[in-house]
Amino acid sequence: MKEEKVLVVTAKEVSKVLNNAEGLVCVDENTIMNLIRKGFFVERSKAEINEEWRQIIPYVVMVDRGKVLLMKRTKKQSEKRLHNLYSIGVGGHINDEDSNNPVEAFKKGMKREINEEVDARVRELKFLGVINDLSSPVSRVHLGVLYLAEASFKEMKEKELFEWELVEINKLHEYREGMEGWSKIALDGLKKHLMQS
Question: Residue 10 pLDDT > 70, yes or no?
Fold first, then answer.
């Protein structure tokens, strides 16, 4: 079976674009699309262990009438490090099957990931920034592209992989300690965005 190929950019390019900033980095969406334009596809097994590359991951926070989709990863998920952790982000790897063009692949791949994971009608997508977390070997080979999706949410499609609920934005902090790293970063950015709007 052919190995999955995922979209990566060089860590050097990421550092240049983000000026070595970490956490949620607020940059212009066009700047990130220009970075993605320089992307290329490599075997996922190589990308997971090579810190010279960063895998591009859309990370979409779903908001339905002021409530955020909060997911708890079950033990049926393949990634053991994430079992029982809370997440507020929907998304995943971008593949060469999405498109050979990196930007088109990113846009199509983000839609594919949303459709695979949730049954929801997305009304609007807002770009919030980039999640650049260098605190662990896993996060050092990924780069999150954070979006807020205003959506009408029905249910999770991968029911065996997630427990879920819609939670008032101002109550999400109660779950923060049990959240995966990117969700903590995204939550802080979400609060800042909502205070500004």
Answer: yes
